[in-house]
Every structure is written in C-alpha cells, then in structure tokens.
Specification:
heterodimer, A: alpha/beta, Rossmann fold, 5-stranded parallel beta sheet, 10 helices, about 40% helix, B: alpha/beta, 2 domains, 7-stranded mixed beta sheet, 5-stranded mixed beta sheet, 13 helices, binds thiamine diphosphate, binds magnesium ion
Chain lengths: ~280, ~300
C-alpha cells in the first residue's frame, strides 16, 4: 500500500476519512462520529507511516498491532482500513447493517485488519500488553499500539494494565490517549477529572509525551520517540478536539453517539471540501 | 479408604509437564500461584509465567492478548475472584473466541475455613450462560490430568476448568480416558440415576453403597463436561430409569442441576431432585462440617434418591 510522510498528502487522506466517518454513520443512521473525528490524524499517521502492516495479509504474524480500546470509535478505523486497502471502500455504507462485517463495535473475528474486539471500555491496554509479552517471548520486533479514550481511563482495569506494562518494561507498547476532554455525559473534568494526567502516567512508570493530536509532525516526532525509548512503555497524550473538522460538531458532547441529520450532513460535506489547516 | 488427592495439585503437575511438551504454553496468576499450583510451572518456566498481581481483569485480558499472538495461556486464581472479570470473559474471551484456559481453584463449600467470600457456589451458572464457553469439572486428580492434557493440545477454548482445594477420594483408575463432552458412568444401576460433577461424583459413589444396602441399584453418571452437556446420556437415563438426582457442590440454581433440568424438560421429562446449595452463601467450618450442614454428603444424596422411589 501507499506509505507516505508527506504532510499535504496525509491531510488529504485525513479529510477523506472524516467524510467517510460522517457518511458511514449517516448511512447507518447511528454510530459514534465525535470520538472518531478526534482520532483521525493519529490513526492516519499509524497506518500510512508508522506501522508495518499488509492490507492483503491481515493476519501476517509479524505485523504491528493496533488495538482500538475505545471501540465505539470504529468508524475511523473502518475508514482507515478501507482506504488502506483491507476491504472495498463501498463496504463502509454497510456499517451497522444486519450481516455486515462492520459491526457497531469492533469485532476481530469479522473485520479484516481489526486486531481487537472492543465495545466494552477498559480492556485494550491489558490485551496490548499480552500481545507485547508474546512478541517478546517469540523474540519478534513487531510493536503494539493501543488507543485509549480519556473517559475510558476512568476504568480501574486501565490502571491495572498501566502498572503491568512498566513492571515488565514493555517498550514495545505505545499507548495513545485521545484526550478530547469529553465523554458521554459531558466533560471529564465535571464527571471525574483526570488531571494531572501526565503526572499520573509518569508516576506509574511510563515515558509520557504530550502533543497536539491533530499535528502530523508532532505525531511523527512522538512516535519516533516512543520507538526509540527503551526499557519502558510510552504513552502519547494527544490533545484533540472531539468532532474535529466540522465546526458545529467540535467540542460538543452531543455528537458522541449520534450521526448527522440530513441538513447537518450537507453542511459538513461543504466544510470538508478543504483539508484542515 | 480410596486414595485421596486434590484436583489443583493434579492441575499444577500436569501444567508443568505440558509446559515441557508445548513451548507455546504460558501461565498467568493473580497472587495466588502457591494456592492454585501454577507456582510449579512458574519455577520451571519463569520467562513463560506472568505474575499479574491482584488484578484479575488485567490478567484475563492480558491472557487474551497472549493468545491472539499465538500463545496457549492457562490463567489461574480462585474461582470467585476471577469471576469479577466475568465481563472480560464474556466480551473478550467468549465474543472473540479466544483460547484462554481459565483453571480456577477453591470452588464449592469445601474451601472450608476461609468462609463465604472464597467459596464459589455460583461460578458454573455465571459462566454457563456465555456463548462459546466450555466448562469442565473434573471429578478427581486422574480426570484432571486428562482434562489438562486435552486442553494443552486442543485450542478451541475459551474453557473454564473448575478445580477444588481439598483432597478428595480418587474415583477413576489410572487408565481412565477423559473424553471432552462425554459423560462417563463409573457405576451402573437400574433404579435411579445420580448425575454428579466434581467432588460430588465421589459422594455419589458413596451414596450408592447406602442405597445398595437397601436393595436400590443406582447408576452414577460423571458429567465432567458441563458445557456442552452430554444430552444423550441424560436422555438415555431418563428413558431407561426415569428418576434422576443431580449432585453438585454449587448452587442448585443454574449449575449442573439446572443444565440437566433444561435437557430433561425439553426432551424427556422425568422426576428429578437437585442436591446442591440451596440459594445461600456458605460460612466458615471444616469441609466435612460444611458439606454436612449444607446437605452435600452421601446420605443427603441417598435421601434425595429414595424420595423419588
Ligand atoms: C465498560 C463500559 N462502560 C460504559 C460504556 C458506554 N460508553 C461508550 S463510549 C463512552 C464514553 C467514552 O468516552 P471516551 O473514552 O472519552 O471516548 P471518546 O471521547 O474518545 O469517544 C461510554 C461511557 C462502555 N462502552 N463500556
Ligand atoms: Mg473523550
């Protein structure tokens, strides 16, 4: 598949994927666009540059793994997998439909390229650690990337796993926190605040990097740093905007779990005619 | 007196032996490796053993990750503590059909002095309802060896293996062959069928002696695979004998008794009694005292059998 670090090309791919997210959830009549839009740049950077993977061989044993722990954001993953060539782009319109291999939350048995069945929050980091332990036992150098939601890290199991990875010096694990500050019922800070989040992960023994999660150059730098940091796992805390890319969706809890209405979809299509600055 | 042994000991020894045969086997524990006997595997294969600390949810999801990357994990804790990760078992192991072997110990009231918090009496029910889950309850140490050998080679889990803490009588001869999904019949009889699992198979065998003294010949069926259940053997017992007692060291709700009742009600209804704990928690005491107080001794099984005649 096409691999690139050309920023203007990546921005174009990101623009296309944002449209896919909105069109697929619109066609489904439901789904989770908000937390999909916030994760676009990180996922594009992973699939178009960082990760070793083979769209024509999804189960290639030496592939880098991507564990989308916040499984409700699958529209962004499905769009990325389709655009990367795992399956036809036209399948995206079958999202959430009966019999489709694009389930409402990820299903590793059904979707080519999906490495983890999510939907219930809090389990992905443990799973990623398990994959990384297997890689180490097999003396393989594939890496495991795991994306967490900010609301998701209120789950206790995240912190169990956050203790496991540094204890076992899993430098082949790279977590990315999609820090869009919103969950379902509102802002993290009003529900159960996470701050000081950098210090929490650092205190658990992680190499912590804080970046603008919509800035490709910052993402690449962080991924480089994660890959070259030895002896401990890295977490990239990516400051993002929920609903990023469509003005009326940005920073709105309301678009966590509902698709656009026809008039909103029209407006969004207009806004997404140009790549983001 | 027959020889006695604990199923957890047989698990620990067989896991260690299977570890030699299959390099892809790994083990995980949550700070109970001494009690669950995974410590023997840990000592022999330190780099393939993962001590996860007191974090059962993390342990089970980490095992899932290991399995997804080609390992064959055996994860252990006390059954009740691993049960807190029921939803990880459901949404990860079962939904994604991930081959993790949950070998959980300290089941039933015979845990003894530790009391109600450690005595799992609901675990069969809680796991039986899950699609893709397999449940095996070995009756003695010999059968446990067969179960662990089977699971080490067969990779079609997830599977829950229900193991006990205390030494219990050996039922099977050395040459016994465990067959997954197939009940065995350690004793034939024509007057009543006792379908039991785990340590209650031994209790059922003792009950047959009480019954035989009164001229009643009981068939004992060892239903060591609870899921998928051997419906043919249950239906045959109903058709041939027509009177069935179930015996389990578990609640009468949703466990072996529930599973047998489901098969009978739809296929071959007959009169039936369930021996098990009766919708209650346990308490502290010696295993024998507790088995007596909670109605799980041979004479309780014999009384249930006679009530059907
Ligand atoms: C264990 C669990 N509890 C509750 C939910 C319901 N739920 C789905 S998404 C969500 C909010 C997630 O917020 P966050 O992790 O911040 O995701 P993002 O903002 O990136 O969409 C909740 C509560 C769930 N899926 N899993
Ligand atoms: Mg969020």
């Amino acid at each position: 598949m096409e691999k690139t670090t050309d920023i203007s090309r990546l921005k174009e791919i990101a623009r296309q994927i944002r449209i896919d997210i909105l069109e697929s959830t619109f066609a489904a009549g439901s789904g989770h666009p908000g937390g999909s839009m916030s994760a676009v740049e990180v996922i594009v950077a992973l699939y178009w540059s960082e990760m070793n993977h083979r769209p024509d061989e999804p189960h290639w044993p030496d592939r880098d793994r991507f564990v989308l722990s916040k499984g409700h954001a699958c529209p962004v993953l499905y769009a990325a997998l389709a655009r990367a060539g795992y399956f036809a782009v036209k399948e995206l319109k079958n999202l959430r439909k009966l019999g489709s291999f694009l389930q409402g939350h990820t299903d590793m048995l059904k979707t080519p390229g999906v490495d983890f069945s999510a939907g219930s929050l809090g389990m992905g980091l443990s799973f990623a650690n398990g994959v990384a332990l297997a890689a180490r036992l097999d003396k393989k150098d594939y890496r495991t990337y795991v994306m967490l939601g900010d609301g998701e890290v209120q789950e206790g199991q995240i912190w169990e796993a956050a203790m496991t990875a540094p204890h076992r010096k899993l430098d082949n694990v790279c977590a990315i926190l999609d820090y869009n500050k919103l969950q379902i019922d509102g802002f993290n800070k009003d529900i159960k605040g996470l701050e000081p989040i950098d210090e929490k992960w650092a205190a658990f023994g992680w190499h912590v990097i804080r970046i603008d999660g919509h800035d490709f150059e910052a993402i690449f730098k962080a991924l480089d740093s994660a890959r070259t940091t030895k002896g401990k796992p890295t977490i990239i805390i990516a400051d993002t905007l929920k609903g990023k890319g469509v003005s009326f969706m940005e920073n709105q809890a309301g678009f966590h779990g509902r698709c656009l209405k026809p008039d909103e979809m029209e407006k969004a299509r207009e806004e997404l005619k140009e790549v983001l600055k | 007196m027959p020889e006695t042994a604990a199923t957890r000991d047989a698990y620990g020894k067989t896991l260690e032996r299977m570890g030699e045969r299959y390099p892809e086997i790994v083990a995980l524990d949550a700070d109970l490796s001494e009690s669950t006997r995974t410590i023997w595997f840990a000592k022999k294969f330190p780099e393939r053993f993962f001590q996860m600390g007191i974090a059962e949810q993390d342990m089970i999801a980490t095992a899932a990750g290991l399995a997804s990357a080609g390992k064959v994990p055996f994860a252990s804790s006390f059954a009740i503590f691993a049960s807190r990760a029921w939803e990880q078992v459901r949404n990860l192991l079962c939904r994604a059909e991930i081959n993790v072997n949950l070998c959980l110990t300290h089941t039933g009231i015979s845990v003894g002095e530790d009391g109600a918090s450690a005595q799992a009496l609901e675990d069969i029910a809680a796991f039986r309802v899950l699609p893709n889950m397999r449940i095996i309850v070995p009756a003695d140490d010999i059968e446990t060896v067969g179960v662990i050998e089977f699971l080490a080679a067969d990779r079609n889990g997830p599977t829950y293996v229900r193991l006990g803490r205390s030494k219990t009588p050996r039922i099977h001869a050395q040459d016994y062959k465990f067959v997954f999904g197939k009940a065995s019949v350690p004793r034939e009889g024509k007057d009543i069928a006792i379908i039991a699992c785990g340590v209650m198979v031994g209790k059922a065998m003792e009950a047959t002696e009480i019954l035989a003294a009164e001229g009643i010949e009981a068939r004992v069926i060892n239903m060591s695979t609870i899921k998928p259940i051997d419906a043919d053997t249950i239906i045959a017992a109903s058709k041939e004998i027509g009177k069935i007692v179930t015996a389990e060291e578990h609640s009468i709700i949703g466990g072996l008794g529930g599973a047998v009742a489901e098969v009978l009600a739809e296929n071959a209804p007959c009169s039936m009694k369930r021996v098990g704990t009766r919708d209650t928690f346990g308490e502290s005491g010696t295993p024998d005292e507790l088995l007596e107080k909670y109605g799980l001794q041979p004479h309780h099984i014999a009384a249930a059998a006679k009530s059907l005649l």
